[in-house]
Amino acid sequence: MPEMGNSLRAAALLSFVVLSILVSLLISSVQQFGARVSHLSNATLAAVDEEQSASLRGALIYQLNERRKEIIPLLLPDEDDDENGQSTGTRLSPQLDSSLDYNLWNEIAHGSRKAHMGEMGCDSLVDMQAVEVLGSGYTKLVVKVNLSGGQPVALKLVNEQGIDMGKCLEDFKDPQGCRELVSYKLKKEIVLLQRLQHPNIIKLKGHCAGDAGGQGGRGGERGRVTVILEQGNPLQMIQLLQSPWEDRFRVCLDLVRLLHFLSQSPLGSVSLLDFQPRQFVTVSGALKLTDLDDASAEETTCQSDADCTLPFPHRNFTLPCSPRGVCEGLNEKRNIYNAYRYFFTYLLPHQAPPGLTHLVDHIMNSTGELKADINQTLEAFEHILLLYKSGLHLDNLPPSIIRDYTVMRGMGTSGNVEYRCWPSYSQQGCVLSVHSAREAAYICNSHSQCNSFTLTGQKTWTGRLLASFRSSFSHLVPDGTSEVYVKKSKAPETSTV
Predict the structure, then answer these.
(1) Residue 85 per-residue DSSP state
(2) Of 337, 414, 417, 438, which is most buried, counting CB atoms within 10 Å of its CB?
(3) What is the pLDDT of residue 49?
(4) What is the C-alpha separation between 318 and 304, in angstroms, rounded?
(5) 3-state secondary structure of 304
(6) Measured between alpha carbons, how far is 168 from 162 in angstroms, rounded to an integer?
(7) 264-to-75, 78, 146, 320, 377 alpha-carbon distances in Å
(8) pTM of structure
(9) 15-41 burial, b if ≥16 CB within 10 A, otherwise e?
(10) Strand partners, 142
């Protein structure tokens, strides 16, 4: 019995040892399997991440190339010329094979290595002082700065907090690549400002681009693009609506002159796809287009007139399909109608001079119905300007109207009792532009408060005189630049001072 007990204990011990070995082997196997699985999982995840990263890089590179394709044709001549120098109407292939094209592209992409023709570069931005933010949008930020010499300019740069930048980072997770992608709108604008130079387009003073390869120019961080523009004041439509008709007419005239240029520009007929007052500024009273990144010279192809619909919120127009398969005048007509609905409607008819209202009405009808092309529209505007500057629209005013006034030349007034009229060049009184003393007398007669007016010699942009109208004054004072007209019922006194 003891032997049997010993045998059982030996068997139990052997079983325990064997079981322990088996458990140990099992644990070891599980650990090795887990390690292999873990290694395989990490390798798989790394492979997936690398594949996703490569896919994102490829998608970003594709987008960069697409933006590049938009710009390259703008750097090339519009059309091939035949041996006699005549245009053949054939577009050149948008490639960067020639050294000329490469140099142009290199200048835009990497910044001017050497300033030319008086243009500013990165060095001009050293020690600049920011003054205020003029505006910000999906893509760009516009900042007013004073350069080291005190010269004010406007800078356009990528809006790092803008919607375009945010969406790109969300899609591609590449800050450097996204900055380059978003900056293509600025690069396109640089090219367009170089190609489309006109008095009513903002002047490009220069640009600065940090080298994408890592060697940013002085004043330009790597990958950043800055456009340097002349300083303008944002167009304030509310303020403009309260301005004299002459100033409102100037804005509309400048706009028509700009659209006439764009209809036959070096790039062909250019359409402003984002046509809003916020795209314009004024510089010394002149209207200037300041945002060109949404300008397009592409023509709409067609097979029939039905393909040439020009849609607007409240009405549509159908234009003819030309024999060469493009919608005839579509870019031009789009610009004209946008000018009508955003500018002419609000600025042109209200308080137009009585002698010009029939001509203004004709412009409103012809542009609102797209009955006139841009050449005819410009001709109509220039005709109004001619009449307005020459005073020919005042021929119906009786010449004798000025006889009701006594004139004192070389005199001014003191102790004035002013009254207000609207719109006026002065908020404190009634100051209007006139062609002559005869027109001023006509205006004074139409104002019940008016008993005298003064011509100071100051002139508006058309060369018309500024006249100050008042109810009364206490006495006259010597003033070699002015002349005072007083209704003969009044008896002015000359100061002995």
Answers:
(1) S
(2) 337
(3) 66
(4) 10
(5) coil
(6) 10
(7) 17, 12, 36, 19, 15
(8) 0.80
(9) eeeeeeeeeeeeeeeeeeeeeeeeeee
(10) 135, 156
Q: Which residue has the tokens 């523009």?
A: 229
Buried/exposed code over 289-307 (b: 16+ C-beta within 10 A; e: otherwise): bbbbbebebebbebeeeee
Residue type for 454, please?
Answer: T
Rounded Cα distance, 401 and 392, in Å: 17
Least confident span in 58-67, 82-91, 146-155, 324-333:
82-91
| CB-neighbour burial class of residue 95 (10 A; exposed 0-12, middle 13-18, buried 19+) | exposed
- Give the C-alpha separation, 288 to 57, whole Å: 39
- Cβ atoms of residues 336 and 345 within 8 Å: no
439-495 confidence digits (pLDDT tens):
999 999 999 999 999 998 899 999 999 999 999 999 899 998 999 999 987 555 554
Token pair listed for 468: 């100050």
Q: Are 331 and 259 in contact (CB under 8 A)?
A: no
- How distant is the alpha carbon of residue 490 from its chain centre? 53
Q: How far apart are the first and last CA of the chain?
A: 153
At residue 264, the pLDDT reads: 94
For residues 64 and 56, give the distance between their C-alpha atoms in angstroms, rounded to a whole number. 12
Identify the CA nearest to 351 among candidates 246, 460, 466. Answer: 246
Which range, of 178-182, 214-218, 467-471, 480-484, averages the lowest pLDDT? 214-218
pLDDT digits (tens, 9 = 90+) for 339-382: 999 999 999 999 999 999 999 999 999 999 999 999 999 999 99
Element (H, E) at 2: helix 2-75
Would you say 293 and 225 are in contact if contact means Cβ atoms under 8 Å apart? no
* Total residues belonging to the chain: 497
pLDDT score recorded for residue 46:
55
pLDDT over 50 (residue 12)? no
Cα four-point dihedral sign 239, 245, 246, 250: positive
Q: Which positions are annotated as active-site residues?
A: 274
**Is residue 288 within a helix (H) or strand (E), and if so which, with residue range?**
strand 286-289
Instruction: Say what the pLDDT of residue 156 is.
Output: 92
Does the N-terminal peptide bond of residue 354 adopt cis geometry, omega within 30 degrees of 0? no
DSSP readout, 194-239?
HH---TTBPPEEEEEEB-TTS-PPTT--BT-EEEEEE--EE--HHH
Distances (CA, A) of 151 to 146, 202, 227: 5, 16, 15
pLDDT band at 81 (very low <50, low <70, confident <90, very high): very low
Q: What is the DSSP string of 412-475?
A: EEES-EE---SS-S-SSSEEEEESSHHHHHHHHHH-TT-SEEEEEEEE-TTSPEEEEEEEE-SE
Mean pLDDT of the chain: 81
* Average pLDDT of span 103-120: 59
